[in-house]
């Protein structure tokens, strides 16, 4: 969880560049394939916020995000 908080803190820095976001985006991309639904949700939420200002920075995560569309945990509500 400390890694997530560090990535989130980097993403919330004012005037952060896309290059500075890359380590945080890499961590969030790893969380997209986590077996824990809460980590996947947290990652997609932060990536969504990043994409508002830096859409090209999250492009490497597109395939992982698309795979979440068919995630079976959504149907267990």
UniProtKB/TrEMBL annotation:
Record's GO cellular component terms: COPI vesicle coat; endoplasmic reticulum; endoplasmic reticulum-Golgi intermediate compartment; Golgi membrane
GO biological process: endoplasmic reticulum to Golgi vesicle-mediated transport; intra-Golgi vesicle-mediated transport; intracellular protein transport; protein secretion
Gene3D superfamilies: Leucine-rich Repeat Variant
Pfam family, one: Adaptin_N
Ranges where the Clathrin/coatomer adaptor adaptin-like N-terminal domain occurs: 1-73
The organism's place on the tree of life at top rank: Eukaryota
PANTHER family according to UniProt: COATOMER SUBUNIT GAMMA, COATOMER SUBUNIT GAMMA-2
Record-given protein name: Clathrin/coatomer adaptor adaptin-like N-terminal domain-containing protein
Native species: Sphaeroforma arctica JP610
